Amino acid sequence: MIIQLKASAGNTGLEKLVSHLAKDGVPRRRLDIFSGDTYTLVGIKGNASKLDLGKYQSLDYVLTVHRISDPFKELSRQFHPGETVVELTNGHRVGRDLSLIAGPCAIESREQLFQTAELVAKTGANILRGGAFKPRTIHRSFQGLGEDGLKLLAEVRDQVGLPVISEIMDARDIPLFVKYDIDIWQVGARNCLNYAFLDALSEVPNPKPVLLKRGDHVSLNELLGAALRLYEGNPQVILCERGDKTADRVHRNVLNLNNVSYLKHHYHLPVIVDPSHGTGVRELVVDMGLAGLAAGADGLMVEVHHQPEKALCDGAQSLSREFGAMTPLAAAIWQARTSLNATQADLGLLEDATAA
After folding, report:
1. Which of 125, 163, 198, 329 could pair covalently with 102 via S-S, beta carbons 3.0-4.6 A apart?
2. Strands 31-35 and 99-103, how do they pair?
3. How many CB atoms lie within 10 A of CB 246?
4. Which helix (H) or strand (E) covers residue 303, if one does?
5. What is the rounded average pLDDT of the residues 4-28?
6. Exposed e or buried b for every residue in 209-232, given b needs 16+ CB within 10 A?
7. Domain coordinates in residue numbering, the chain
8. pLDDT computed for residue 355 by the predictor
9. Calpha distance 112→237 (Å, rounded)
């Protein structure tokens, strides 16, 4: 349920409303309060079906009361006006600034990581990716460096000055991600619906932002349900679209850009597109990445390797010098899309926070 206060209500009206809700069994911790120039919105998290809508509508400082049927209402634009912005320690804002996440699929060695990090830092990346734990279909394949990889990632962060992201695979590794102060914790496609794992991440004290990848053939409702589990304990959630397997053997995966547009129209979390896993084909990565930004994505996650032909993991979909050629195009498309978003908001084409 969302309650919009009259412009004249002020802080006095807000405190009266909070007191009324507390008497009806809704503590302040279940409230999300948003104030604009001319409005104050109070969103009630969780089940509000037992609250008397008419009672609250009759309060003289209340303008409107709306029930929201969306089961993921805390993530909806009706509940949360504007965009969620995830601010990193270096000041980069995912959801407000163009986010270009780049680096190797797997950290193979110090030399490989540092050379690739220097490459992406010089050519436009603002977040460095690197896989320390790499579960592979064939267990005899390279599985990553584990803790040594996280250690290298923390070291290269200090050298190139970029925040870092790495995939966490197991709740038992939470202390390692805390130890090396990994800036963004990635939940990969395989763990998208691992609810016990997601719950463990949502309970981490002083949590870091979490990037949640949509798993293969995971529906949007399932993705949003997974995101909500994280969000209730840690609102710094970033969604990532990375495609699905299809019967077509030409492509490793097919990127679903419908999802990007839909999520950006109806929900407030940042959305990142992964065109590397979304295609599995190097020559398609730039095209689909730019298309993802045109569809409304807040940024890209791209696999880059200084020598893709020698990569121990996903070399066929990794960029090298192509990344530098892509970044100015990405910036231009993102800027045009940002202007379009502002126009859509003015015309009411995005979900409005005060919509019925």
Report:
1. 125
2. unpaired
3. 12
4. strand 299-303
5. 93
6. bbbbbbbeebebeebbbbbbbbbe
7. 2-67, 86-347
8. 39
9. 30
CATH architecture for residues 2-67 = 2-Layer Sandwich (3.30)
Report CA Rg, the chain.
Answer: 22
Instruction: Report which residue type is found at 313.
Output: C
Q: What percent of the chain has pLDDT over 90?
A: 76
* Spatial contact of 297 and 99, defined as CB atoms under 8 Å apart: no
- Asked if 286 contacts 327 with a C-beta cutoff of 8 angstroms, the reply is no
Written as six digits, the tokens of 78 are 């009706």
b/e map 132-166, b = 16+ CB within 10 Å: bbbeeeeeeeebbbeeebbbbbbebbeebebbbbb
Superfamily of domain 86-347: Aldolase class I (3.20.20.70)
The two domains 2-67 and 86-347 share their CATH topology (first three levels equal): no
> What is the rounded distance in angstroms from the CA atom of residue 272 to the CA atom of residue 293?
9
Band (pLDDT 50/70/90 cuts) for residue 354 is very low
Integer angstrom CA distances of residue 79 from 46, 222, 353: 12, 19, 6
Mean pLDDT of the chain: 92
Query: What mean pLDDT comes out for the span 147-167?
Result: 97
pLDDT for the residue 296: 95
How far apart are the C-alpha atoms of 238 and 65, rounded to whole Å? 29
The token pair at 4 is 């919009």
Helices (H) and strands (E) in the chain, counts: 11, 14
Measured at the alpha carbon of residue 345, what is the angle toward residues 85 and 13, in degrees to the nearest 5? 70
CA 174, 96, 269: angle at the middle one, nearest 5? 55
Work out the pLDDT band at 349, boundaries 50, 70, 90. low
